[in-house]
Amino acid sequence: MSATGRRRARFQRRLRWLVLGLAVVFFVTPLWAMAVFSTSSPHGVTFDTWRQLLHVGQLSRDYPSFVDGVRLSAILVVLTVVLMLVLLVPTMTWVRLRLPALRRPMEFLCLLPLTIPAIVLVVGLAPVYAWVTYFVGPSSVWLCFAYVVLVLPYAYRAIDAGLSAIDVRTLSEAARGLGASWPRVFWSVITPNIRTALVSASFLCVALVLGEYTIASLMSRNNLQVGILQLSQRTPAISVAVSLAALVLCFLLLIVLTLATGHRRKERETG
What range(s) does the ABC transmembrane type-1 domain occupy (predicted)? Predict the structure, then answer.
């Protein structure tokens, strides 16, 4: 390698470390401030706030609204992920196989929620939820329908990348030629090949549902973020500790997803 090439490689290496350092400072500083705030007391450092979070029974008695919000968010996460996968994956696969002319209109519809402010979505969804409440009851779990609309752009991009990485038509025609039915083609051929994309889309759904506040608040529902806001008005230290725990949980999920994806890619390359 020439002297110019070595200097360029050294500069690029230092630039990468500089960007990585700035990113670490940018992300870690707020988390560190939250950790310090949640462990501070007039008498010094204390972990009483975090101990309170571990006693679910006591937490339920002291902050029942917050615990209900956590439970609702957990249910909404499951429902939203399941509905999103059931709605998007077969539809996108079928459009690729049989209706390629509808790919652009479908992409436009799925990305449309990105351009609509949440307050406008709430105004539009309010009459719909009035009918939902009239027919099936006032349960907050029906927020999953609104959340599926919210996650459509992100989930569509993740699944579309997975489908674009494989030859859907050739795989399905080969399976059909061997006598497989369409359901078997979908579950045994297409789905295993886009598993990483499905995991990515599911993780995005989890992160979005756990962080959603506007729609739940404007519709007078009590999810995790609304519960944290109400908690902050009574005990700011606990609300900050809960927010920090939720952020750390999301980071851990992202790390697990990255490791799992890298391990699976390495297995494919070696196997």
Answer: 70-261
